[in-house]
Amino acid sequence: MAVRAVSTPGGRRLPDGPTAAERQVALLEFLLGSLDQVGSARRVVDWLVETGASPRAAALLVDHANHQLVIIAERGLPGITDLTIDLRQEQHPFVRALSSLGPVSLAREPQLRLVLGDGRMQALPLRAHQDGQALGLLLVASSTRALPSAVAWSADRLSEQLYRIRSRETLAETQYGHERLLLFNIINAVSDPVLLTDLEGQVLIANSLAEKLLVAPDDASEGWRRAVALNSMLFSAALTASTISESGGRRELLLVDPLEGSDLVYELLSTLVHQKRQGSYVVSVLRDVTDLARARVEIDESYRTLRLAQAKVREERHRLDLIIDSVADPILVTDADGGIVLLNAPAEKMFAPAHDSTESAARRVRANGANLTSFVGTLLASGTQDRFAGELTLTDPATGAVVPFEAIAGTILSDQGELMWVVTILHDLTEAIEKARLYEQLKRASIELEEKVHEATAELAEQNELLRRQHIALEQASSLKSQFLANMSHEFRTPLNAILGYTHMTLQGVAGELSPGQRRNLTRIDSNARHLLGLINDILDITRIEAGRMPLTMSTFALGDLIREVLLEMEPIIARRPQLEVVLDIKRSLPRLRTDRQKVKQIVLNLLSNSVKFTEEGGIYIRAAYDARSRMALVTVRDTGIGIAPESQSHVFEDFRQLDSSPSRAHGGTGLGLSICRRLAQMLDGGITLDSQVGVGSSFTLRIPVKPRRR
Amino acid sequence: MTRDRRTAPLILVVEDYDDAREMYVEYLTFTGFRVESATNGVEAIEMTQRLKPDLVLMDLALPKLDGWEATRRLKSDRATAHIPVIALTGHALAGHAERAREAGCDSFITKPCVPDELVSEINRVLEGRHAAGAADGAESSSAGKRRSRR
Predict the structure, then answer these.
(1) In terms of domains, do A79 and A225 share one?
(2) Is residue A364 part of a domain?
(3) Domain limits at A536?
(4) A487 contacts in B (CB within 8 Å)?
(5) For residue B112, which of A499, A368, A421 has the smallest C-alpha distance?
């Protein structure tokens, strides 16, 4: 313990040692300059010891707040250095001393001996007024009852000093309390719950809103308590999590309204506050975001709706794009300033440079753009018109080909009538122009063709006329030929008539009896003349048929009668072949025929005479029948004659054919007979067929319709 | 073949070709007819009107006036219309027969016609005339297969 050298603040050391008065002044100066109870008390204790007023001294102060008497300064009394006495120990000598009016001698009580040692001590209560409460005790050593005046003086001074300081402190304390109230009002006025808690979430200070959430009054219902307990738990948990972040992070906190039971959503803002003396605290502000949360949900909903709407719009837009892109014609939308707002794929080809486009392609794109701008400009300059059609020549950026377009533009106006967009649709005219060109070509070709047809027609007409004339000439020639032949046959007949007539007459003995030689010779003349007549008649028939001058004379007759008639006529010839059997078979089913009787007779006669001519022995079988299916009458003349070789069968019906030239003399005939027969049969809508085998015989069949066909 | 020379039918043969005319005349006379002859149409009409023969054998191709016209005239004359006319022609073309019928011929014979056939046709026509009083051109045929038309 320092015994001397005590420096005073601002004091000065006197070289010759201070006087008692000077020491008092120094103490007073010090005390006046100090507002510290502890420092003041220590100074007084030091002064007592140093001035020799009391070799030992100590000062104790009352701590009202803690109901304690605390030692704050001592000199020469090491036993009481850390002494603290509870004021409620009313029997304690120090406590009793506090309530005495004057100095109290401290009895040598065992409990004090430990503290004060062996020396006699007195306790002086320190009070400013006689009736005032003691603020402390000053312990001084005294061998006598009476105390030195310096002790009493210094005790008074310390009392005054303590009082003065206490008064100031009380004032300050009152001011603090006021401020504290104000502050409390302020935090109560905050519309959010505000709390000061320790780190574990134990509430130290809470405003009314926070209390409402976290503190249940004594008369609270069970539900309220439970809600409060739940809220406290939730809050602590949130705080624990929150304080980890240290910087006072925000987090959402869901609490329950203890009265209403509804959910409350708070945003928790916690700030960690460090204080050296009191340790760490957490200040929490709960911001009610229930409405905000609701609003947020609504916003979320709106946002989702918006997103859906946007998606729909996007889809619409996509679909529209697809539709627009699928149009083969370029479509563009430009705004009022001529900027391109939208283009479909074909338009892109013309107006948007490809990312890999060449310089020339880019130039063409720019030229196209300029063309379009000028076109749209013309449209806008035209004023009131909201549709505008024109032609526009662009260049294909890729190929450089010039493409003519028909452009149709329309304006889109806003509700206020302002021009918003211009929609331009371009239609490639290349094809149309090509078509028009082709059409023109076609027309030209058609005209040419028509001219050619005209020419050809004229030529044809000319040729027709020529042919007609030729035909007439030919007809005339034919007619002349027929006429000539007819005349010729007449001319032949006239002498022949005489030859035959005279021969006949002579044979009949008109000019007297004949010798057998004469008769034989005349018979030969007669036979040759008749042969000549046959030739002439055949030639005449062919001529008539060819000239179409063989008319048909229709009649109805029985074919059987006709055949019998022919046989009768042929009787003389048949008689010359006595070994020849002639058999006639006429079917009963055979109907009467309606056709040219004379022609049928001529054919049958011809077939029969042929058979007789070429059949030396055996038989001739004539069969007449009706074929119901074809409605034809069939006349078959079969013989057992020499027959006709297969390779010759097709020739027998040709003009002037006789199969063998040598028998022709033997058999006679012109070779026209079968040819005439076939022609006649064809005239009657019928025909003649042949079935023959060499050495076996021939079979000719004539087919004639029983009724003429309708023509 | 024996007929009374005075009552035998009188046949007028009209034919410009002498050999034929004479042949018919000879044969008809040989057969027993009374026979007169003419060489052209004009003569034929004159003789028919004058002699009123029982039958006229008329060649169609005649000089001066052809057989068709001569026949037409005879048939349009009341005095001679009843006398049958047998047309005789070397032309076998269809038109001849038709025209002959149109002209009024009672029968039609195509040359060549052997005397026998001619006689039988004459007899047929005469018999028909006597029997029915109407001429009906029956058929006349020859080995040449020519035929008159109805």
Answers:
(1) no
(2) yes
(3) 429-550
(4) 91
(5) A499
